[in-house]
Amino acid sequence: MKRLFPLLFSVLGALVSSGQTIGGATTFNFLKLPHAPLLSASGGVNVSYAPDDIALALNNPASLSSRLDGRAAFDFNAFFAGIKSVHIAGGYHAPKWQTTFGASLSYLDYGTIPQTDASGNEQGTFHPKDMVLQVAAARSYLLRWQYGLGLKFISSSYPPYHSSGIALDFGLLYQDTARLFSFGLVARNMGIQLSTYAGESEELPFDLQLGVTKRLAKAPFGFSLTIQQAHRFNTLYNDTLYNSANNVGAKPNFSRKLFNHLVLATHIYLGKNLEGTLGYNFLRRNELSLGSSGNGLNGFSAGFAARFRKIEFQYARAYYQRRGAYNQFGIGLNLRDVF
After folding, report:
1. Which of 26, 107, 134, 290 is 20 to 30 A from 68 via CA?
2. Residue 56: which of 339, 205, 267 has the closest Cα?
3. Which residues pair with 99 in a beta bridge?
């Protein structure tokens, strides 16, 4: 066990330095989508918040614990333009191995789209879709540490183009229950394409994320601060032609580059079984800004979880457009209680 952490960090460093670069376009960007409503409500990025939610736990595989044994989650996203996403997850604890396992299946359906040639002439229709199968395992280390690995099998189809890939998530979680504090770290989407769309290999959307969550002892509030894309400082692409045409200012300054890494969340505990969440993602808001025009609630998100003895209901609403948002619904079950 003493040699495990140095080994894991050595592998992590090698993958980050040689298998991923810090610029350029990536493929399989649907891997960035938050499939758990509590994650969407928290700003879409959070690696330290760890309630008993199997869908959220698979976001940081180190969050898997024995409390999630027999838990199942069914989540549905109603995205824009008729795009739909379904996510199914489950957990199992193996006492003999002192290991908790998790698995999930995510499916995105973009509907039927007209197929045209370069001149815009319709030649029929096509039905694009993406799918991710994830298996993960986690174990405890000492009293407060947990570590986990998640393996993803990726399939993407935009007829007549198809691609597949494999990716690895590595996570750490430190929890001090006495002080109501937790720290998380995840290296996400370390992997390669197994087959390409058109013969040219592309990068996966690697992201190094870390964050802290602190719940107040004498008030019904908790707070999360998460850093995304910690492996590079400047996260914005500066398109000078677009900036000039849309009245966008000069290159972002130091403070904007810094704040673009931050995702904030407030957790409001309205009772033992009712919880609300508010989130704000600086990078999302800046990416969706339209020059000097108003940007509404872009970057903001909110949601709640209502827990009952055998079932849990979750809802999240996240803003990606000036006049619109997408809604996400989730149901959580303890299968050992239900059956």
Report:
1. 107
2. 267
3. 94
- Report the helix count and the strand count for the chain, using DSSP H and E: 7, 16
Q: What beta strand segments (E) does 95-179 contain? A: 99-109, 113-116, 122-126, 129-141, 145-158, 161-176
Nearest Cα to Cα of residue 314 among 69, 77, 47: 77
Cα–Cα distances (Å) from 19 to 15, 185, 280, in that order, read: 5, 19, 31
SS3 288: coil
Domains, the chain, ordered by start: 38-113+124-338 (2.40.160.40)
19 exposed, middle or buried (CB, 10 Å; 0-12, 13-18, 19+)? middle
pLDDT per residue over 313-326, tens digit each?
999 999 987 767 88
275-278-280 Cα angle (round to 5): 155
Which DSSP letter does residue 203 get?
A: B
Largest CA distance in the chain: 65
pLDDT digits (tens, 9 = 90+) for 245-294: 666 655 667 888 888 999 999 999 998 899 999 999 999 888 877 665 66
Burial of 49 (0-12, 13-18, 19+ CB in 10 A): buried
Is the four-CA dihedral 275, 74, 131, 68 of positive or negative sign?
positive
Q: How many CA atoms lie within 13 A of 14 on its CB side?
A: 6
